[in-house]
Specification:
The complex is a heterodimer. By secondary structure, chain A is an all-alpha fold. Chain A contains four helices and no strands. In chain A, α1 crosses α2 and α1 crosses α4. The longest helix of chain A has 15 residues. By secondary structure, chain B is of the alpha/beta class. In chain B, the strands form three sheets. In chain B, strands 11, 12, 13, 14, 15, 16, 17, 18 and 19 form a nine-stranded mixed β-sheet that branches. In chain B, strands 2-1-3-4-5 form a five-stranded parallel β-sheet, with helices on both faces. In chain B, α19 links the parallel β9 and β10. In chain B, α2 runs antiparallel to α3, α6 packs across α14 and α9 packs parallel to α11. The longest helix of chain B is centred in the N-terminal third of the chain and has 26 residues. Chain B is elongated. The N and C termini of chain B lie far apart (about 80 Å). At the A-B interface, α1 and α2 of A face α1, α2, α4 and α13 of B.
């Protein structure tokens, strides 16, 4: 997967959707390697909104420490995959 | 893979469990619309928001509102001119960040252009005490103060000290009242307070039932006093947290972690319920509450299909589902009693529909409950449009209730401005669902409603006077009635049309006229329309009668129809008006005045009206309708004196306002 490739796995698409929705960024610009800290709108308020959104989609709580230290979109996707136990609802 | 993913990301829903039919995702469509540039007309945006409300959750609506709040998009919405600005200030004791996008979404959905500003976190008190610097130059129409129980408990040293808690609960309402007064002076507009829910951990830390009950008692007394501020303070609305909680799709309080992390006390669902209530309030504040409820008949006002089942086969009253339809009728009746106009839009033969309404023993609503019954086979949007025109209302004042999805879809596409109620599948929930929408909510009774109430009060007073007067003539004289006749003009046409439309008892021929017909016939001399107004010692009864006069080929004046409001029955008004017609006809040189009486189930009481006025019947009654024709020749004034106006009615301008051309 190249840097230019839009997010690919199911969880990545889910996270991309959440970021596009809540941060109002272009879905097609988001990839596995998108760096959260340099993404426009990734502030403390929106972080919380993304967390709530992802927890709803995952159907359970996400590990907060890992969420706060996640650097890329792919990191968040991995977190969602673990929380959902591979069973996205 | 990238092409495939992109296509899916843009056009298909978020990953859904296999087997689920692709659910529509209105917020995603809204996002695509927003990124491509919002359309000039915000109607599609509003429709997507409506769909998002029905199908998605608070978090999605929050995202939708966030998209629309971006300055360029807000500009675009403002430029359309289709939304009415609503300015809201938000203060609170917890984090309410998400209330702004939620409120944005629901206000735009409901036709308003939001301008929302928030005070800083937990700044509700300080902000107002320091002269509201965060709202300088803002001038909100609504100022919401949404507090949580910390606002009370933060000043209690020991939460286990029941007396301290009671003391604090006892003084808090006065504190809030003082705050509200200052906020109103500083910001103006309407102050919106809310009672405070008690979070479980406050109560559950107490280990005795007695202590818990004592806390509950103090808390409920406090909330009761906060509710009472609505009455005690000017321009203040108090919302009930219990009502909000009932409407919310989820719990009142948010997840514990969000409270610890970000001081989010309330759940997104509860904040959405607050936003929804503020939108209703915003509409009421702008005078945009709906005014007319348009109801379908078959499987809505009653169970079953009249055309198939007949009147006797309808399910209404008794056990379920008849009880559910009756419950809806009772709700409509209570709306009507509070000034909401009711109408029917049904695909039925008109005669059968009217007969069922008039005769079914379990009907709560009766023919006189409705300002109009549109029972025919034409499309319903036409009925609603015509109704709005006849009643002099905007289409956006109409609320349409129909069990049939197809009819609802048609109404939504043809008349998106009207509110089409998405009914639940089971009639058992029809009434609850309709009532919860709050389409007709007003801040208080409008001037007009108050007048109506006044009218009923005056009527009651008249009845009382009737009891005390020794004889009827003395009573009528004591009323000091004054009757004025006015030709139809721009100011009274709506009411004249309405009077013809909704008068059923004293309605001599049953002919009803639309506003357009009235205008056309007045213009081309094909008829002349009049209203009559009655005032008395108790006040103005308003326009209480309407007449349509036309000229016969032989020059005689024909009373085409004559209706009189039942509010002024038994006061000789009908005699006075006909006497005035006769006088004017003679003065104009007409050879006679003619009239017709077409019997209906409601007007039989007045079958002898023309005979009682010295008219002679012409020919036999028509076999089909039972209609009779009447004529009073006008011969020599010397030998044929006309009946006079009853002595207890003054007619200030009795030169004969009536004419036929």
């Amino acid at each position: 997967m190249s840097v230019e490739t839009p997010a690919g796995t199911e969880e990545e698409r889910l996270v991309a959707e959440a970021l596009a929705q809540l941060l109002d960024v272009d879905l097609n610009q988001l990839t596995t390697f998108t760096v959260l800290n340099t993404t426009e709108g990734w502030d403390s308020v929106n972080q919380m909104r993304v967390l709530v959104y992802l927890e709803r989609e995952a159907g359970g709580p996400l590990d907060y420490e890992r969420f706060m230290t996640a650097e890329t979109l792919g990191d968040l996707a991995g977190l969602v995959a673990d929380a959902a136990g591979g069973e996205l609802s | 893979m990238s092409v495939d993913t992109t296509a899916r990301a843009a056009g298909s829903p978020a990953p859904a469990s296999p087997g689920t039919a692709a659910p529509a995702n209105p917020v995603r469509r809204l996002r695509e619309m927003a990124r491509a540039g919002l359309p000039e007309d915000p109607a599609p945006v509003r429709e997507l928001l409506r769909q998002a409300t029905d199908r998605q959750g608070a978090i999605d609506l929050e995202a939708a509102g966030g998209l629309l709040a971006a300055p360029a998009r807000r500009e675009r919405l403002a430029a359309s001119g289709a939304l009415t600005e609503q300015r809201v200030a938000v203060l609170g004791s917890s984090t309410l960040d998400s209330l702004t996008p939620l409120l944005t979404a629901v206000l735009v959905r409901d036709g308003m252009l939001p301008e929302i500003r928030q005070a800083g976190f937990n700044q509700w008190r300080l902000e107002i005490l320091s002269g509201a610097p965060a709202f300088a130059g803002f001038a909100p129409r609504l100022t919401l103060c949404l507090l949580d129980d910390a606002a009370v408990f933060d000043e209690i040293g020991d939460p286990l000290d029941a007396e301290a808690v009671e003391r604090r609960c006892a003084v808090f309402p006065a504190e809030l009242a003082a705050w509200a007064g200052r906020a109103r002076e500083t910001l103006g507009g309407l102050i919106v307070l809310c009672t405070l829910p008690l979070s479980p951990l406050r109560r559950d830390r107490l280990v005795s039932y007695a202590a818990r009950a004592r806390l509950d008692a103090a808390w409920q007394r406090m909330n009761a006093e906060i509710s009472a501020l609505a009455e005690a303070l000017p321009a203040t609305v108090v919302l009930s947290h219990e009502a909000l909680a009932q409407r919310a799709a989820g719990p009142v309080f948010g997840a514990g972690r969000m409270r610890h992390l970000a001081a989010h006390v309330y759940s997104p669902d509860y904040l959405l319920a607050v936003a929804e209530e503020l939108s209703r309030l915003g509409r009421a504040d702008l005078g945009r509450a709906a005014k007319c409820l348009v109801l379908d008949l078959d499987n809505t006002l009653w169970g079953g299909v009249l055309g198939d089942d007949g009147v006797g086969g309808l399910r209404l009253g008794g056990g379920y589902p008849g009880s559910a339809h009756r419950e809806l009728q009772q709700l409509a009746r209570d709306y009507q009693a509070q000034g909401v106009l009711l109408a029917v839009a049904s695909k039925n033969d008109e005669d059968r529909a009217r007969e069922a309404i008039a005769t079914h023993p379990e009907m709560v609503l009766r023919p006189e409950s409705f300002v109009a019954v549109h029972a025919h086979w034409d499309p319903k949007p036409g009925s609603v449009r015509r109704l709005a025109a006849d009643l002099n209302l905007g289409v956006d004042a109409m609320v349409f209730v129909d069990d049939n999805k197809v009819e609802r879809g048609l109404m939504r596409s043809e008349l998106p401005q009207a509110a089409t109620v998405e009914l639940p599948a089971d009639p058992a929930d029809y009434a609850t669902h309709l009532a919860a929408r709050g389409d007709f909510l007003t801040l208080r009774l409008t001037e007009e409603d108050r007048d109506r109430t006044e009218l009923y009060r005056a009527r009651a007073a008249r009845a009382e006077l009737a009891g005390s007067a020794t004889d009827l003539t003395a009573y009528l004289a004591a009323l000091d009635s004054e009757l004025t006749v006015e030709p139809a003009g721009p100011l009274n046409t709506g009411r004249i049309v309405q009077l013809f439309g909704k008068t059923n008892q004293f309605n001599l021929t049953g002919l009803r006229y639309g506003e357009q017909e009235l205008g056309r016939r007045t213009a081309d001399g094909g008829g002349a329309f009049f209203g009559a107004r009655l005032t008395d010692t108790f006040g103005d009864n308003g326009l209480i009668a309407a007449l349509c006069l036309a000229e016969e080929p032989d020059g005689a004046w024909a009373v085409e129809n004559f209706v009189l409001s039942c509010r002024v029955f038994a006061r000789g008004v009908e005699d006075a008006l006909l006497a005035l017609v006769l006088r004017a006809a003679r003065a104009a040189g007409a050879p006679a005045v003619t009239g017709r009486f077409v019997p209906s189930p409601k007007n039989t009481r007045f079958a002898g009206f023309y005979a009682g006025q010295g008219f002679a019947q012409v020919g036999e009654a028509e076999p089909e309708t039972g209609a009779t024709a009447w004529r009073r020749p006008l011969t020599d004034p010397q030998t044929d004196p006309l009946p006079g106006v009853p002595g207890w009615i003054r007619v200030p301008d009795d030169k004969g306002a009536f004419h036929v051309r």
